[in-house]
Write a structure and sequence with these properties.
Elements lengths: L8 H33 L4 H14 L1
């Protein structure tokens, strides 16, 4: 694969690790946003969230 991209194995490995870290950090931010949103809305149980989603879909 490194040959196809004209990169050394070390360069390709570094690039893959950077992408992995970037994506992991992005998902960490999304999870934190979700946690904060549920706290702000007073949702503390999964069943409550399921009810909110179900009721929301029923209205549309």
């Amino acid at each position: 694969m490194a040959d196809l991209e004209n990169k050394s194995k070390a360069e390709l490995t570094r690039e893959i690790i950077r992408e992995y870290i970037t994506k992991w950090e992005r998902w960490a931010k999304i999870r934190q946003w979700g946690k904060q949103t549920t706290e702000d809305m007073g949702i503390n149980e999964e069943e409550t969230l399921d009810d909110i989603i179900h009721n929301s879909r029923k209205r549309t």
